[in-house]
């Protein structure tokens, strides 16, 4: 089919110039407010290439995300500094051996990096200490603002920059991380454009997969179609995350597709597919899930679960606007799903009582969604002072924040039949009374449904950046070959004369 999006858009480094400006003004404001001097340097160390285990096989490098945010540098081994006093930015490139030119290509001069990455100056990484000393015009040791802080999704800490001669500097390890992370939470127009493109090409790839899905194929063939489309027509060499191509009972395995479960099941007639796949374009990602019947026609049970999830997805998007709390959106999604399950006789009793018993988490154990940007799970979900909830389901939320204009957050309700959760729930006196055992038995092996869109919070509401068919009729039509987006039906049905 090719692609309506070819060729991919030009990337401008202006996005990173703006990101640096934003950090500089936030940091300066913070320093002024705490009566601290406006000098010193922000210093970040970019990512390093890694080899596979003990071999010389070099894994394809992808830049560390904070470094990518500020400098947009695709090459490994760089450092970057921002002079807090002057606002000047300095990139430090690794000094490459002459042999590099034999095996890896032309060695670019420093001027190339200065021009390409739109920084004030470029030097070599073995000059960091001397260059920063030269740029410092105040008394005492120059102060370095280094990146050190917790990633609340992984529980890992970012690694502060290290270099020869760092002992000649004072170090501040606490100021930078929360300020830089907060900058990343609210997206600029240029960042939004990149996320939109990642969404456009990924949405198109999902539709291509939907159209080519046939009984008897393997899950990895769906993955392959997606990867091909986003790379071939979008130049997306990286995905935001490993593709989850789950069918049948695998779709209840939330993070299916990993090395031990490598998308290798045969697609069976009557099964659902749950495909969670998103491409990355110039560091900025997308995170999209489509669920559909492999044979192209929803059964009544599939419609029941799918509609429950779609209603939750749509209810959340209708309610989203600045000031709305994300925990409330999660609870709204749970409630809509539980009401649908009750109408389908899967659950019994009063929905509010089910909510109190946290029954929603039996069917949707994960959080409703997460911030999205350079990382799939973009940082900043838990501002200082915000506590993770303890209750099932809510404790999985990657943020509990109020929505703000400029956030991009995924809306990804799901409903799954997971034995590891259903069996204990059926055996617990608090939850078993809500569960219709016979009907639930019918859903054994069903797997699950998830619908995931990437949503931008606007001044007055929100905007869904993901453009996939979502309604049951739309999915069935697209799978049967109908165009997407649907062709506009002409309102001009007069006498055939062109108006
Ligand atoms: Mn997601």
Keywords summarizing the entry:
single chain; alpha+beta; Creatine Amidinohydrolase, Chain A, domain 1; Creatine Amidinohydrolase; six-stranded mixed beta sheet; globular; binds manganese (II) ion; metalloaminopeptidase activity; protease; Aminopep_P_N; dipeptidase; metal-binding
Polypeptide structure, described:
It is built from 16 helices and 17 strands. It is an alpha+beta fold and 499 residues long. The protein has two domains: 14-185, 3-Layer(aba) Sandwich (Creatine Amidinohydrolase, Chain A, domain 1); 189-479, Creatine Amidinohydrolase (Alpha-Beta Complex), CATH 3.90.230.10. The protein has a six-stranded mixed beta sheet, sandwiched between helices. Helix 9 runs antiparallel to helix 10 (326-343). Residues 493-499 have low confidence and may be disordered. Manganese (II) ion is lined by residues 287, 370, 410, 412, 452. Residues 287, 370, 410, 412, 452 line the site of manganese (II) ion.
């Amino acid at each position: 089919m090719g692609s309506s999006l070819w060729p991919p858009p030009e990337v401008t480094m202006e996005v990173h110039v703006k990101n640096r400006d934003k950090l500089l003004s936030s940091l300066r404001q913070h320093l002024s407010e705490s009566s601290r001097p406006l000098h010193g340097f922000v210093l970040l160390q970019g990512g390093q290439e890694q080899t596979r285990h003990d071999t010389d096989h070099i894994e394809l490098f992808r830049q560390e995300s904070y470094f990518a945010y500020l400098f947009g540098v695709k090459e490994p081994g760089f450092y970057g500094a921002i002079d807090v006093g002057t606002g000047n930015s300095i990139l430090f490139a690794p000094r490459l051996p002459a042999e590099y030119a034999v095996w890896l290509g032309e060695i670019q001069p420093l001027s190339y990096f200065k021009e390409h990455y739109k920084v004030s100056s470029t030097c070599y990484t073995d000059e960091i200490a001397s260059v920063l000393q030269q740029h410092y015009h105040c008394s005492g040791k120059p102060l370095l603002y280094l990146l050190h802080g917790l990633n609340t999704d992984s529980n890992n800490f970012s690694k502060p920059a290290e270099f020869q001669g760092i002992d000649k500097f004072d170090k501040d390890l606490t100021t930078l991380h929360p300020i830089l992370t907060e900058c990343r939470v609210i997206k600029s127009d240029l960042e939004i454009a990149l996320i939109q493109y990642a969404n456009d090409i990924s949405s198109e790839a999902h539709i291509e997969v939907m159209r080519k899905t046939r009984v008897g194929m393997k899950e990895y063939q769906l993955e392959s179609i997606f990867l091909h489309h986003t790379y071939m027509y979008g130049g997306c060499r990286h995905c935001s995350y490993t593709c989850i191509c789950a069918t049948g009972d695998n779709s209840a395995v939330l993070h299916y597709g990993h090395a031990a479960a490598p998308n290798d099941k045969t697609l069976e007639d009557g099964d659902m597919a749950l495909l969670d796949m998103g491409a990355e374009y110039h560091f900025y990602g997308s995170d999209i899930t489509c669920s559909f019947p492999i044979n192209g026609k929803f059964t009544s049970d599939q419609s029941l679960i799918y509609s429950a999830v779609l209603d939750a997805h749509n209810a959340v998007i209708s309610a989203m606007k600045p000031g709305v709390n994300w925990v409330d959106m999660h609870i709204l999604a749970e409630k809509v799903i539980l009401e649908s399950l009750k109408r389908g006789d899967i659950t019994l009793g009063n929905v509010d009582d089910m909510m109190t018993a946290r029954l929603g988490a039996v069917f949707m154990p994960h959080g409703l969604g997460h911030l999205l940007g350079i990382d799939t799970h973009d940082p900043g979900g838990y501002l200082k002072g915000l506590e993770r909830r303890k209750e099932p389901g809510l404790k999985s939320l990657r943020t509990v924040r109020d929505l703000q204009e400029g956030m991009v957050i995924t809306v990804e309700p799901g409903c799954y039949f997971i034995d590891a959760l259903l069996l204990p729930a059926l055996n617990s006196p608090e939850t078993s009374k809500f569960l219709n055992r016979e009907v639930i038995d019918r859903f054994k092996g069903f797997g699950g449904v998830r619908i995931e869109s990437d949503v931008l919070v606007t001044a007055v509401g929100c905007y869904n950046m993901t453009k996939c068919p979502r309604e049951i009729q739309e999915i069935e039509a697209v799978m049967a070959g109908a165009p997407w987006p649907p062709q506009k039906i002409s309102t001009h049905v007069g006498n055939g004369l062109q108006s």
